[in-house]
Design goal:
Shape: globular
Radius of gyration: 17 Å
Distance between the termini: 28 Å
Structural class: alpha/beta
Bound molecules: pyridoxal-5'-phosphate
Order of helices and strands: HEHEHEHEHEEHEHEHEHH
Oligomer: single chain
Length: 231
């Protein structure tokens, strides 16, 4: 991460490392905390709940990075310090309702499907500016920025284009005066260098820190469906 930031003439301190502990036992989370990592990421509400219960209060921040079903919004708002994956106005409204009941603000990122792959979550890229603007006006939500996932490819030009589209979506929102923060959550084990070059402020890293997720190989080795609609 440091090398990628320096190569891009960026301050390495501007890129936060979210350690993705999904699929690993609580010992893995403890090891990450012991190593000084303060941002932890889980992609499922249930697993986040189980780990929070097992560990108790931690000197760190919990990030929820996976798709959240609307019916789990209350639990997600209660468990996560930052939800990276708000991908619909409906989910945003549900989260906001929870916030208003508890008198708190729910901090979120808006996920944008910048790759255009049909199997990916996120606001459709053609409507992203309009939808995220709408999201940012919901009382009780604080939209700190945007999140995306790149396609599973090695082609750097495709990866860079996917990340650049997220940055440009943020720039367009800021030009409109939308109350959207500057965070760009993008980059995983396979593409973090490209993401940092394109302006990432948060990378979400699992495999490079913890190795393969036990029992996850089958699902992740499944061939990705061909991407459609990619420019
Ligand atoms: C699992 C996951 C990651 C981490 O992926 P690695 O390739 O293991 O680094 C990042 N973001 C999301 C949304 C994930 O689900």
């Amino acid at each position: 991460m440091g090398a990628a930031a320096e190569a891009a003439h960026r301050d390495p301190a501007q890129v936060r490392l979210v350690a993705v502990t999904k699929g690993h036992p609580v010992e893995g989370v403890q090891a990450a905390l012991d190593a000084g990592l303060a941002d932890l990421g889980e992609n499922r509400v249930e697993e986040l709940g189980a780990k929070r219960a097992a560990l108790g209060p931690i000197p760190g921040t919990w990030h929820l990075i996976g798709h959240v079903q609307s019916r789990k919004a209350a639990r997600a708002a209660e468990l996560a310090d930052l939800i990276h994956s708000v991908d619909s106005i409906k989910l945003g409204r549900r989260l906001a309702r929870e916030a208003q009941e508890s008198g708190a603000v729910v901090r979120v990122l808006a996920q944008v499907n910048t790759s255009g792959e049909v199997q990916k979550h996120g606001f459709p890229r053609d409507e992203a500016v309009e939808r995220v603007h709408e999201l940012s006006e919901i009382q009780g939500l604080e939209v700190l920025g945007l999140m995306t996932m790149a396609p599973f490819v090695d082609d750097e030009a495709v990866l860079a284009g996917t990340f650049r589209r997220l940055r440009e979506t943020g720039e367009r929102l800021h030009a409109l005066g939308a109350r959207v923060g500057g965070e760009l959550s993008m980059g995983m084990t396979n593409d973090l260098e490209v993401a940092i070059r394109e302006g990432s402020t948060m990378v979400r890293i699992g495999t490079a820190l913890f190795g393969e997720r036990p029992g996850w190989q089958a699902a992740e080795a499944a061939p990705a469906s061909p991407s459609r609609g990619t420019a």
